[in-house]
Fold this sequence. Notes:
The complex is a heterodimer of chains A (137) and B (166). With 137 residues, chain A is an alpha+beta fold.
Amino acid sequence: MEKQEKAAIEALLKEYQDALSTSSAEKSAGLYAKEGLFMSSEASSANGTENIRKAYQCIFSRIRRAIDFHIHEISIEGDFAFAVTSSEGQVPLRASNTTAPEETRELFIFEKKEGKWEIAHHMFNTFRGSPPSASSL
Amino acid sequence: MNASKLKLAGIVAALGMLVGCGAEDLTSSQDTTLNPAQQVEIQQLLGKYEVALNAGDVPAVMQVYSNDPVVMTADNPASVGSAAVEGFYTGTFKAIALNLKFSVAEVKALGTDWAMLRSTSSGTLKINANGAEIPSAFQELFVLHREGGKWKFARYFFSSILPAAK
């Protein structure tokens, strides 16, 4: 049973990865629960489908990136689950027409509603491939 | 000035530009599946973290974490396991001193032995090397695990809510 749930969450992450890779704010926001919350890096949180869609739209207007998640952990308890993932890549910067190396780490909290897993909370932050630094949190 | 300090300087310059890519209706919510005592316990755990963080007290910080913590913070490599997390805080406190006030935004059960805590924090960050104090604002997302009957931080992500330096 848990294997099936894990597979369903992996499928959801794949859908999300595809939505990001195609810069689709609509599809990205559509994978969230109606009252879901997106905690973007270097911006305040966005809650609810419309705010989340606008947040992705804002991000996609600045950067475009092909995403390939490495799934480090999926933990499931009943109708709740969380996942830790990361992705590495070069980020094209639209403004300067250059790229920057970047590792993005993601934390997802999922809820299953009416038999379907949805993203309830999602936060990411980035580590731009410089040597480990202890001078900032 | 190293890259991190440049970034911090950028944060200062960007303070007041909190528009970014987000918008939240500011309502705090608490799920009823956590009983009041559990909610208080989790809020107190965040309070202990705040005190330990502001005191630069590594042993006290480690007391709020589970046996297998994962800490992923912006601009630092992932810290996986107690030794790595302890090393991260030791290095951090050598470099900076924090004076942050945390506010709980949401506490919610994720089943029986897991829970989540969302918070924000703001205050100042002092660079020990030169004494410069920098206004800071963060958002945090914790996954908590109940170990031996006590809630502990098991996964911790946070990021600045201030736009990056351009």
